[in-house]
Amino acid sequence: MNTLPYEDFAHAYVTEVGEAVRRMVTGGTEAVDLLAKATADGGEIRAFGNGGSSAIVRSALLQLHAQAGVPVNDAMMSPATLAYSAQQDDYRGVFARSLARDIGRVDLVVVAGVSGRSANVCEAARLCAEHRVPVLGLVGGDGTQMESADGMVWSTGTTDQQISEDAMLTVLTLAAAALGPDTEPLSAQAERHLHALAAVDIGLLGAFLREATEAVADAIRSRRRIYVLCPDGGPLALVGEHFAHNLRWDAPLGVDGVQPPLVVCDPSLADMSAVYNDHPDPAHGVRYQLSSADPEDVVFLLAYDSAGRTTHEAGSAATTAGTRPFLLHRDGPGHSGAGARHFRLPRVDDFALAALVQSVAHLLCRTTRAALAADRSGPAAVLSPDDLMARDLAPLRELSDTPSL
């Protein structure tokens, strides 16, 4: 099948992400200053978001904790805690309630959401305003839908949901990386990242995207399982959670007659703590998960190094099960001994790699939705790059009236 529509779509999408990042970086000095001030004396930072924004802000928290030892909240790390808290009252106040008890110790709150109108995020921001706690708010459009209070609103300049999310994760990652005393300023960090973004091999990405789209759409139609796994953890595991969320919820969104797909992602906290306690081998958890895979199930492996032992063992388990494996990685050989279709991304650090992988996940989400929708139009339906760029999920989530720059 012709890969050109996939290549053209990937090029247009990646270009839009780069432009959004460049727009945001022009006003990013204030954001870096907010983060630097909050972390200077061992301050505490909280962060909140819904859906994909949840994984985005938790990636920033992980980076700040790993880089500067910043105390961060765990309220969004536990699905059990979040669900229980929401059921005790309502989800509108769940973030504000988690802040209220300790707000006197909080130096900065980061919130993210394309619409900027989510009730729980607005309630948290309102509480911060009452207590004069700075808020760094990342939103889509021109940012006028959110009050700046004592912090700043960092807007993406676009209402496209996936492009906004990619820009948010990228600039948060770059801003956190600019905090160290010997690191480059945000502008230099951004130029290096944009250079890496421009270096993505669009031809190879188009071929990867075509095969992955066919595999995922077929798995959804046939009720086969789709696995999204990151054996080595870290920021890739958080973006893997977002990846799985895209396939489970977003790919069939608004497509009549399509059931939610069967998506398996990385082990829960309960699973992982048991794995390390009973069998201290990071590859054991993913091998165990893949032992239930059936032939023609689809497996996405997210890896820092394709030659790493955990990745190799996960790939071998996927191949042994007869699945259709797809490998996204940064380091290691440009081929997989396990027979997976691979795509190697440019050399960036671990957190910036997660931003690139998230863009691939969003591309796949949109091409899969298009493929599923085309089923109702008959086999002659053709995927158009323009149609794919127009398959933004924001209108389906009533975000289309958010102002653009």
Explain what this protein looks like in three dimensions.
By secondary structure, the chain is α/β, with parallel strands linked by helices. The chain contains 15 helices and 9 strands. It has a 5-stranded parallel β-sheet, with helices on both faces. Helix 6 links the parallel strand 2 and strand 3. Helix 9 packs across helix 14. It is globular. The two termini are 38 Å apart. The model has no long low-confidence stretch (mean pLDDT 87).
List the keywords.
single chain, 405 residues, alpha/beta, five-stranded parallel β-sheet, four-stranded parallel β-sheet
Relative strand content: 5-15%
Structural class: alpha/beta
Q: What is the general shape?
A: globular
Distance between the termini: 38 Å
Whole-number radius of gyration?
20 Å
- Order of strands in the sheet with most strands: 6-5-7-8-9
Continuous helix count: 15
Number of strands: 9
Q: Helicity level, as a percent range?
A: 40-55%
Reported for the largest beta sheet, the result is: 5 strands, parallel
Low-confidence stretches at least 5 residues in length (pLDDT < 50)? none
The SSE string, one letter per element, is: HHEHHHEHEEHHHEHEHHEHEEHH
Overall mean pLDDT stands at 87
